Amino acid sequence: MARSIDTVRTVHDLRTRVAAWREAGETVALVPTMGAIHAGHLSLVTLANSLADRVVTSLFVNPLQFGPREDFHAYPRDEARDAAALSDAGSDLLYAPDAGEMYPPGFSTKVSVSDLTEDLCGASRPNHFDGVATVVTKLLLQCAPDKAIFGEKDYQQLLVIKRFVRDLNIPVEIVGGAIVREADGLALSSRNAYLSPAERTIAPVLHQTICQVADDLAKGRGADDASEAARFKLESEGFRVDYVAVRDPETLKPLHGPVTAARVLAAVHLGKTRLIDNVPVPAR
Amino acid sequence: MARSIDTVRTVHDLRTRVAAWREAGETVALVPTMGAIHAGHLSLVTLANSLADRVVTSLFVNPLQFGPREDFHAYPRDEARDAAALSDAGSDLLYAPDAGEMYPPGFSTKVSVSDLTEDLCGASRPNHFDGVATVVTKLLLQCAPDKAIFGEKDYQQLLVIKRFVRDLNIPVEIVGGAIVREADGLALSSRNAYLSPAERTIAPVLHQTICQVADDLAKGRGADDASEAARFKLESEGFRVDYVAVRDPETLKPLHGPVTAARVLAAVHLGKTRLIDNVPVPAR
Predict the structure, then answer these.
(1) Distance from the CA of B70 to the CA of which of A249, A283, B16, B115 falls in 20 to 30 A?
(2) pLDDT by residue (tens digit) across B8-41?
(3) What is the CATH number of the domain that holds A106?
């Protein structure tokens, strides 16, 4: 049964609520989202609740991080449904600003990270990470949480956020939350809603394929060889492959030949839908 | 007689000191400087003391805001002298980080403002305002003051800082401090130390000339006409003129013809030294 969740829409009201918690000695965690809440987001709320006394969830579909041909206008929006789900999951407050509150007239500031962003999703989505870095900087400074939680599904994004938070001395701890998957392995994503029934049947092959890469790497197969085999497999199944990559898990630098610790990351298109996923390769 | 001033060199130590003041209910103002302290800086410390219980002065010669052919290495440095002067002026703490504390290995984040920075000093000093925005964002987030004080001599810089502080929701009030001048009108600047005796004699003509522009504007003379006359005057006195401009005092948009409220801004070279100055034109 959905409880109601308190909702604020301005920086002023958000800060007033957070200040009251601080006054009472409570700690605060922030879970930034673009709405279209699924069990992946809810797992981040659960994690946030285990790390802080109060959990703020933000809901803002950030225009800055969408390219001109991307799905900003089509992105699924249903605040009432999201609010109910977040309340049930234990979020104490929903922060849902409108675009005018986030980007007032004359807005002209950008936060950008030059390292980590050039390739992988940065190559096919120019300006995407600038948009992420700018809005996340704002959300962190608006809310001033002790911790902020981001899903590992957007693994490159998580590293970018950790980088600018360190570089700019934003006083918050960034925590990554594990990927939540469907029973067949498909990583939960708001964009899975775009998949046709036929595409939905094929989609889990993405996860199966990168797990195969991780297994191959663990057995000593070379990184270039394993990722090339994965690309062939995905293309033969009907995916258009943006990248399949084996990278250093901290720096995202490319790895070649046999690896120890690594991250396997992939982005593909299935029809009109872009899907991303990643899995760790444990140190041998 | 110089008192000693407490000095910290790390973000951790700075935050520990500021947290203790907060715990005691005290407010904090930050005065960011690049050292080479003169009476202009000290007036900002005095202003800061009138606005907050505690005053932190930072001293960091920021490499990011110097161009490759500018005077980063030659910039005057004398921390002991600066520390004594700041202590006498009533600063409670000196924060003097080294470059490794500000820009650790892997540093790769930039704060940039697209509006306000394209021309005037931005035209001749590419990347300068990115460097300012990045380091000031860091200093503000490191110290977390209630107010931060910047001199109006760097008028364009002051507007840029106000802009990104608003845009990124940095929770601080930015306060401008009036320009302090020598008896002959020359605006105090750390770079005045570079002037030869002959150049020092000529230098006050910069202030005299932009005051003449302001007078002319107040009498209804057109902005283009008045600034062109000023350029001619400065060049005939031996200055190499970077710009003399009449601008909107808030947006820095160019003004033409008769004006009401405006700011007259100028940048010139005198020998190897770059000098800037500005004066208000009151609304008629």
Answers:
(1) B115
(2) 999 999 999 999 999 999 999 999 999 999 999 9
(3) 3.40.50.620
Task: Give how many domains chain B has, as a whole number.
Answer: 2
Chain B environment of A172 (Cβ under 8 Å) = none
Residues of A known to be catalytic: 41
**pLDDT per residue as tens digits for the range B188-216:** 999 999 999 999 999 999 999 999 999 99
CA distance A262 to B111: 31
Q: How far is B103 from chain A (nearest CA, A)?
A: 7
Question: Residues in chain B whose beta carbon is closer than 8 A to a beta carbon of chain A?
Answer: 11, 15, 104, 106-116, 133-134, 137-138, 141-142, 144, 163-164, 166-171
DSSP H/E element including A85: helix A79-89
C-alpha to C-alpha distances, A86 to A20, A80, A140, A144, nearest whole angstrom: 21, 10, 19, 20
Domain membership of residue A283 (yes or no) is no
Q: Is B261 exposed, middle or buried (0-12, 13-18, 19+ CB in 10 A)?
A: middle
Residue A65 lies in a domain: yes
Q: State which residues form the domain around A132.
A: 6-177
CATH code, domain with B254: 3.30.1300.10
Residues A37 and A86 in one domain: yes
Residue A219 annotated in ligand binding: no
Chain B nearest C-alpha distance from A139 (Å) = 8
